[in-house]
Each structure stands twice: as C-alpha cells, then as structure tokens.
Amino acid sequence: MSVTTNNSIKSTIAMAALHSVIDPEIGLNVADLGLIYNLDFDEAGKKITTTMTLTTQFCPMGESIVDGVTQAMQQTFPDDTIQVDLIFDPPWSYDLISEEGREFLNR
User: Fold this and answer.
1) How many separate domains does the chain show?
2) Which CATH number is 90's domain given?
3) Strands lying side by side in the sheet with 4-5
4) What is d(CA 73, CA 77) in angstroms, rounded to the nearest whole number?
5) Residue ranges of the alpha helices (H) in the chain?
6) What stretch of H or E contains 37?
7) Domain residue limits at 31
C-alpha cells in the first residue's frame, strides 16, 4: 500500500525513519507491514499528523507501537509537533504488506 501525503520528499524521509519501529509480535517494521496510511505535513503550523492502524484493534503491543512511531517521527522532525491518529477503517490486511515485508516473513 502506498502512503498518501502532501509532501513526497518529507514522506520518504519519514518512512525511512519508521522502518526502525518494529511490531514486536511479528518482527517486521510498521512501514513494511503497511500500518502507515497517511502523513500530513502542516508546514505553517509545524505539525505532522501520522494516520496509522494496527494489525488488529486489540493488538496487545498497540500502545508501544504508537509510542515508537511518535518517537521516530519526533527524532526525525525535532522542530515539529507530532500527532499520531490511530484508525481501524479501512482495516489492515495482509495485502498491505510490502514485497520486502513478505520476503522477510517467508524467510
């Protein structure tokens, strides 16, 4: 799945940073899992909103994963306010995993 964004350059930087956030139950990063849906960069307001999901609504590591996304974004964009919006519509599915992620999971 491709991430929607209003700034493709900053989105590329953000997604690279989000490769460091690992879902501890699966062992794969949130970017390759397809958990990131949207990255909105508000240049004037110095705010970045990340819209994401989890593999299930009841993911026991959900809070940890959201905290990891927040921290990775804050480290990458230290002058911006980071907001992470967690949504479950559309629901996550295996089809959202990147080719690299599928290769990792089938090792």
Assistant:
1) 1
2) 3.30.300.130
3) 4-5, 36-42, 47-52, 81-86
4) 6
5) 8-18, 30-33, 62-76, 99-105
6) strand 36-42
7) 4-94
